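can u do me a favor
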């Protein structure tokens, strides 16, 4: 692969087809674009394809971020949003699993989509605990890992909120 082609691939992947160049708040745009992408993957192949897409996107995102940031001072430029896509997908895992297990459309669980989005953005922006620790790394692993951890925290929050709703409020 020619260097120009490798650079183009890294840019397209890291910015998720240039979504990372949208202003303001490119990370929020990246999280938003992850929602219809998740829906499309689920519609094509169900929960298991969606679940497999997460590590595939992580690996692809890691290498794209590594190439995209090579030789630059900023290890985590704001236009890199593939990490937000991966984290947002992790946050959506319980919602998509729940829809599959209940045999309902993804839109039936719309409150879960909103909770997954809001919780993921909150953890990604505030960077509490392990999220902030991972973000302090000056490499592609840190770029990807803080969003993975934020996604896991958000997924736990989604499950907790669903449990409260179904067990207490209903």
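np, heres the sequence
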């Amino acid at each position: 692969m020619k260097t120009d082609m490798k650079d183009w691939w890294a840019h397209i992947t890291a910015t998720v087809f240039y979504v990372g160049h949208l202003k303001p708040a490119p990370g929020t745009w990246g999280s938003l674009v992850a929602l219809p992408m998740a829906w499309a993957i689920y519609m094509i192949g169900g929960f298991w394809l969606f679940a497999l897409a997460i590590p595939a996107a992580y690996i692809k995102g890691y290498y794209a971020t590594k190439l995209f940031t090579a030789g630059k001072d900023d290890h985590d430029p704001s236009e890199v949003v593939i990490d937000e896509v991966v984290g947002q997908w992790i946050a959506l895992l319980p919602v998509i699993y729940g829809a599959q297990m209940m045999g309902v459309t993804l839109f039936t669980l719309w409150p879960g989509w909103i909770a997954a989005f809001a919780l993921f953005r909150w953890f990604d922006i505030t960077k509490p605990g392990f999220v902030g620790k991972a973000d302090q790394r000056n490499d592609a692993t840190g770029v990807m890992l803080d969003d993975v951890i934020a996604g896991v925290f958000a997924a736990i929050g989604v499950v907790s909120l669903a449990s409260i709703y179904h067990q207490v409020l209903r």
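The mean pLDDT is 94. hope that helps!!
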